[in-house]
Amino acid sequence: MHLLDVDDLTTDELTAVLDRAAEIKAQPEAESDLLDQQTLGMIFEKPSTRTRVSFETGMTQLGGHAIFLGPDDIHLGHGEPVKDTARALARYVDFVMARVYDHEDVEGLAEYSDVPVINALTDDAHPCQTLADLLTVREKFDGFDDASVAWVGDGNNVCQSFVLGAAMVGLDLTVATPEGYEVDDDVLARADDLGRAPETTHDPEAAVAGADVVYTDVFVSMGEEDEREAKLAEFDGFQVTTDLLGDRTLMHCLPAHRGEEVTDDAIESENAVVWDQAENRLHAQKGLLAWLAAQA
Ligand code: CP
Ligand code: NVA
Asked: Keyword Transferase on this protein (predicted)?
């Protein structure tokens, strides 16, 4: 079992992971030996604060161990093919977690790995973020039935996994992106197959009307630095200000680029739940690791 995107899980499995996360969050000490002697290999081609620290801390808290493998630490990216890295790592570790640019690289790791591969962000998907996001919405709104989310910004990795997760749990979602930055058709088709493709628009005001939550992400993602000036111009009008936010809840996967996709006063306001969301990365991933271990 690999988690390359949220819809690698069935809806029942997703609910089981979220339930396990909530259970461990409520009583973390009860699981302090769960992954005794187990190791997570963590491949990072891109920087990370939350993902690296929450996975490593989560493994420690579950009684296991994590190894950080940065871009200059291993042969991947320096001549060794993905399939060789995958087969070698699987002889040592119990789980592989990978943050890479090209989604095909996590697919390659998964194809050749005998242990679970967890996608920790590619250019196309960020399922671990979605697990934490769904846990956060479920906590704040006591389930998914009474929450409506407006995504405002780029329709790329974080948004795409959230679209799939929202479809799976029946969460009402509208996605507002500039033209040319929409969610991929393939992701919308998968969400439709899961029973709930989001509404889509190019109008942020229309998206937030009737929403309880506004969710945004950086306009310039990791690896897009050369597109910075062009993207900032194309995303004009999509900044989440206190005016656009109103009394709605603000979500952001972080890191935030204040003054670009969100204003400082919006993210510092009482409406923002971004620190709870960041904390839930830890609990959600512990739930995922515990659930994966139970499948083995
Ligand atoms: N949200 C998220 O994945 O944060 P990091 O890039 O800090 O890991
Ligand atoms: N879209 C952002 C998410 C960071 C967690 C990026 O890819 O850089």
From this structure: yes
User: Within the chain, how many helices (H) and strands (E) appear?
Assistant: 12, 9
| Position in ligand 2 atom list of the atom nearest CA 48 | 5
- Closest of 176, 147, 276, 278 to residue 235, by C-alpha: 176
CA distances to 17, 23, 227, 258 from 34, rounded to whole Å, are 15, 13, 44, 39
- The 10s digit of each residue's pLDDT in 233-252 is 999 999 999 999 999 999 99
CA atoms 45, 46, 47, 53: torsion sign: negative
> What is the per-residue pLDDT for 77?
85
- Which pLDDT tens digit goes with each residue over 78-102? 899 999 999 999 999 999 999 999 9
CA-nearest of 168, 129, 192 to 9 is 168
pTM of the model: 0.98
Q: Which of 246, 254, 290 is nearest to 53 (CA)?
A: 254
CA 48 / ligand 1 centre spacing (Å):
5
Q: Is 156 in the pocket of ligand 2 (CB under 6 A)?
A: yes
